Amino acid sequence: MSVAPGPEVVTLGCRLNIAESQVIRGLLMGRDAVAVNSCAVTEAAVKRTRAEIRRLRARRPTAELIVTGCAAQVDPAGFAAMAEVDRVVGNPEKLRADAWAAEALPVFAFRPEWQALPDSVSGDTSRGFLEVQNGCDHACTFCVIPAGRGPARSAPVEAAVARAGAMVAAGRRELVLTGVDLTSWRDAAGHGLGALVERLLDVRGLERLRLSSLDPAEMDERLLALVTGEARIQPHLHFSFQAGDDLVLKRMKRRHLRGDAVRLVDRIKAVRSDVAIGADLIAGFPTEDEAMFARTLALLEECDVVQAHVFPYSAKLGTPAARMPQVPVPVRRARAALLRDVAATRRATWLRSLIGSDQRVLVERPGTRGHAGNFAHVVLPPSPIGSVIPVRIAAATDTELEGIPL
Asked: Residue 8: pLDDT above 80?
């Protein structure tokens, strides 16, 4: 099957990659080029990146194929050596127009300051990803992402507000704040993420603001007041809990304990009970025994998690956790499968509890599906893409809702 020449961007991994891919697509306009924005969070993600590269080369044999993202940043030589790859662009340079020129040299050194995004903003989607933070200064023992993203950098307030205004003017009904370590955002005076959210809520025309993954150790009082009291902040909070056992959390070098997570969720739900809680969880971390795993499993109920991202632990070369006593791979996979099964049952129960409720749904492509404020998937009658429609939930499956416009 022949494919028309033109730019194509394939995105793997996090919402930050999604946000950056929107920029990359614009930088490649008018070219017969394919970019793979890779992920390095697990070995499975790296393998999938390589598989996507091979698939794209088979489908686009004449296109220039360029690889960027965290996997390419961590192992540039390995990806450059693939026969299918024409060029590798480093993460520090991938949002610069000149980095995508054919004669550009790859740059893999991170700058300590925030890198301004290109001015152009497309208006072709209903949801926009607003990157306000990049990099990470923490040293979680399982994580290779600091090597892929560099030190923490925060967008200046005025730059973030200006870009948010441009995205709203381009037709975005909902903005999603993204970052590698979003809650580490700081302004020049040291104010936290709550200060930025306050300013963004002043953007004229902004209807819906959603926060991507949050570190429970960095939820400041200003931010907590906003997520519990501001209706435009969508009732969906996703936390990087990672585990529910204190010793495992300490060995991960996380900065919160199990009780901190439980108290945080209790505090939020006491004020805003409709907030849907999501969580990242790792199964089979080194030294994890059955009792430790049971405490992580129990965290699903104690923190009312209805949207879980579960990963079996994946050893990354060079990380401290890779040198710890390892849980056998089959045990990791079995524990991850059990976590997913319990999480799926909780999600199905939650979705059915929403039958008869009224929700406001942002309609996304292809116009018959969207997300409610709590990030539940909703199937709708054909509706204009980009519209926000009040619906009554008429039915639910284990994975999605059916809405009737009011």
From this structure: yes
